[in-house]
Amino acid sequence: MPLASAASLLRHLPPRIADSIYWRFYSRRQHLPAYQPLFESARLASAPGISMALDPKDHMHGMIAFTGFYERSLTALVRQRAECSGLLVDVGANWGYFTLLWAAANPANKVIAIEASPRNIAPLRANVARNHLGNQVTIHGLAVADTPGTVEFEFGSEDETGWGGIAPANASATVTVEATTLDKLCAGIGPIDVLKIDVEGAETLVLNGASDLLRAQRIREVFLEVNKYRMARLGIASDAPLQLLRAFGYQCVTDGDGVHARPDSRRTKPIAC
Fold this sequence. Notes:
This protein is 34% helix and 20% strand. The chain is α/β, with parallel strands linked by helices. The protein has a seven-stranded mixed sheet with strand order 5-4-3-10-11-13-12, with helices on both faces. Helix 6 (97-105) links the parallel strand 3 (87-91) and strand 4 (110-114). The termini are far apart.
C-alpha cells in the first residue's frame, strides 16, 4: 500500500489514537514526497466535499492532511453552530480551515475572513475559490487591532504558517501591515453569530477594537486562543481577554489555552438557532 494511502487510514481511527500516531510518526515525515498528495488536496472530515491545498512543512496543516481535523473540540463547536445560517468573523483565518467549515455547512452562511500574514492571503483565496465558496466569503488581507492604521508584523517560523503576529517593539525582521478594528470593519452589518480569534497573543487588541460590538452584544459567541508567551512579549496580561469580555457582560469558559464566551444569560435572552 502506498505511504499516502496508509497515512489516510488515520481518518478512520479513534481521535486520540489518530492524533497520537500522527505526532509520533507522521509529523516528522510529512515533508516526504510520498505524502504530498495528502497536502495537495486535503479533505476536511467535518465538511464532506471540501478540500484544501496545504503546506507540507506546517504541523497544523499536517494534522488536517492526515486526520481531516484541526483542534477537534473547536471544530465540533463551530460545525454545530454553522448548521444554523449566520455570520462567522474569522480573525486569523490562516489558509481557511474554519472559514471553509462554516461556509460549507449552510449555503446561507457568510464569512468575513481576516488574515494579517501576507504569505497566507493567496493560499486563503485559492482554497475558497477551489471550493466555489467565493459568494459566501469576504476576505480581508490586514491585521485587526485596537486602532486603525498600520502595525509591524513578524512572520515567525517559516515552517509554521500560523505563528506570525503583531510584533513587539523590539522585534526585528518585520513588515508593515495595514490594520483596522472590528468596530470599523463590521460597522453597519447585522449580528455576528461567531467571532473566532487566533492571532498569536494579540487577542486583547482585537477585543479592544470591538468595544462597540461587545458593548451592544452584537457578537453572539466568541472563541479565542490565548497565547500567553506572545501576550507577554506584547506587554499584555494573561487574563486580559477574560477581564475585557466579562466587563462587557459575557460569560467565559476556559479550556486549556482556549476561551469560549457568550452574553451573560442573566442579562440577555438565550441564543437560539
